[in-house]
Amino acid sequence: MSANQQPQSPQPAPQMPGTDPVVLFLLVLVVVLVLGGTGYLCVAHPALTSPIAAVGGVGAALATAFGVAVAIRRR
To answer: Fewer CB within 10 Å, N side or C side of the chain?
Structure first.
């Protein structure tokens, strides 16, 4: 090793970016508010129960497909 070379420090390993706690909190808050609003509509207006259930079923299928697509993309 020559006199003007400095020893190289080890490079930190690249870390996977984690979920921001604020984003996670807001996501949970939105889910709770949507579920609460949906529950209120089903109790206050029983005629809307079956349309809301249909939309919820389609939404659950779309959310599952989106989650699978994101999980596959991250691999």
So the answer is: C
